Give the backbone structure.
Amino acid sequence: MPTELVAIVQDFTRWGRRHLDDAVRAAQQYGDHPKDWHRLVLYALTDALAYNVLLVGTLAGYLQEQGLDEDLLRRHLQTPDPDRYVTEEALDLLAGLMGRPASEGQREPTWQFVGRQIAECSVDRNGEEDLLTSG
């Protein structure tokens, strides 16, 4: 598996976990304030969900590019419709992770930039794994 995919799993899992921890803290701290409780818990949970959906879509997009059987991909994703995850944002993130340039004359999409940054931080200039992916 490419080091960049390991890095994105680590990075997005870390961010998702932070949002889940925020949801737990909000649930504990705002029990006496229902409006704040609903708002803060749901914000944190939907933030975690967004990271997770984008991560799943990026990995699914990679597997599609590698020619993984569509039935097997559907089983792994536990959905009849893998494209619900493989969004334009997920494909942009994948493009950045894999070091693909932006389309000629086009500005680099935000998620492609994020993917490129994650990839650059996961592998040092000598091509050896950084601490991010080796720990």
Summary: The CA atoms of residues 25 and 92 lie 33 Å apart. The two ends are 16 Å apart (CA to CA). The chain has six helices and no strands.
